[in-house]
Design brief:
This protein is of the alpha/beta class and about 450 residues long. It folds into 3 domains: about 1-65 and about 90-100, no CATH class; about 145-215; about 230-450, Rossmann fold (3-Layer(aba) Sandwich), CATH 3.40.50.300. It has helices spanning about 10-20, 90-105, 130-150, 165-175, 180-195, 200-215, 240-255, 270-285, 295-305, 320-335, 350-360, 380-390, 410-420, 435-440; strands at about 1-10, 25-35, 45-55, 230-235, 260-265, 285-290, 310-315, 340-345, 365-370, 395, 405-410. The protein has an 8-stranded mixed sheet with strand order 6-5-7-4-8-9-10-11, sandwiched between helices. Strand 9 (about 365-370), helix 12 (about 380-390) and strand 10 (about 395) form a beta-alpha-beta unit. Helix 6 crosses helix 13 (about 410-420), helix 7 (about 240-255) runs parallel beside helix 8 and helix 9 packs parallel to helix 10. The radius of gyration is 51 Å and the shape is elongated.
Length: about 450
Amino acid sequence: MKVKLFHAETMHEAIRDIKAELGPDAIILSTKRVRQGSLPFGLFGKPLLEVTAATDRDAKEFAPIPQPTVPVQRQEARPLMPTPPAAPEPAPLFQDTLSALLRRSATTQPTVPSAPMPSPVAPPRVKPTERVHRLKQDLQELHQRLTTSLPDAAPTGGAGFPAPIARACRQLIAQGLRPASAENLCLALRRRLASQTAQTDGDIRETLHRILEEGIRVSGPLLSPGDNYNVAMFVGPSGVGKTTAIVKLATHYRLEEHKSVVLITLDTCRTAAVEHLRMYADVLGVTLETAQTTADVMDGIRRHREANLILIDTPGFGANETARLAHLGGLKDSYGPIETHLVLSACTRMQDLRRTVARYDVCAPTRLLFTKLDETAEYGNLFELASQTTLPLSYWGIGQQVPEDLELAQPGRLADLLLERGSVHVTSPGLSSPRGCDMLASVGGTTPQHAQ
């Protein structure tokens, strides 16, 4: 750092000399008033301004500032006379003068481009994808509900078909079929009707009835003619009617088919369920065994190989009990062919039915058994789920009476329900048995509500 002392009569002259010698970056360290003379302590000398300035650079790096063209008037030399000390300049006036001169000199310096200040970046907006996804699902579900509730004259639902076929398409949608499924059936209907001359409403309904029958797969009874042995296991959520269906099947095959039947229950957590089965087993004269594990079930099957039909009841498992469901699926690996019926309620929404099928996939179901058809007026779920899973329908329950209110699944019966040509309360000659009704009169003839 270079430090130098300057003397001038005014601050303006001092700053000019500082910039000329030290450059525009010089800084003033201190200022004070002094007297210039030969006497001690400068008595009777000329008053001057003493400025101490400094710079970090060598003075020769800077070109001297050119002197102004206007000559500076100086006072004539006068003899030294004693004068009273002058009062110091006010500090604000000195600071204002210094700031003005520094600003004026700064305009002559080369400007160095400064880096632009970074503009504040707004945080990225997070797209509410999950909320949008839920909103889309709600809109799709609302669209489907509105479509199924539209009157026959509505343009949606089979809009590209002739009026009779469009009415049939809307009727299928009203029964719970997906619009895509209903339109595919109506496309097949239109292709088939193209080869016919008459196309009355009756012809259209009959043709559609045959198309529906062709698309419905059924499994047939537990024991077909000529079969003398079968092991069937019934799985499904709680409350769908597994125990009720087993009681109805046991009653039918024991009293009407005269087969030897054995009941095995894994649902030992509910005491009422065990007692319910035991009551019917005593009336029917069949064997009932309780099992705590799948190994107990295997032992029971081996002990009763002479029986014609072994029916296995299982508890309902929740969504978080996949490990216990896997144990049920292991029965097939340990024993061999076990006919597994997935029991579902016809009143369940299609989305929940698909979730249940996915959860019970570890049990490898081979049949679909629907219950509670008497508690709904829409049967499209039966057709849709059977088509999507390619699993055949085995039985369906239409009430609580034993054993009348259990029917063998038949394509024509379901087609009648989809086309509203029949009612579930019109019992088909599937499992009815007057003798069974007489024998079960002593226990009420119906299943308790807790078994549903």
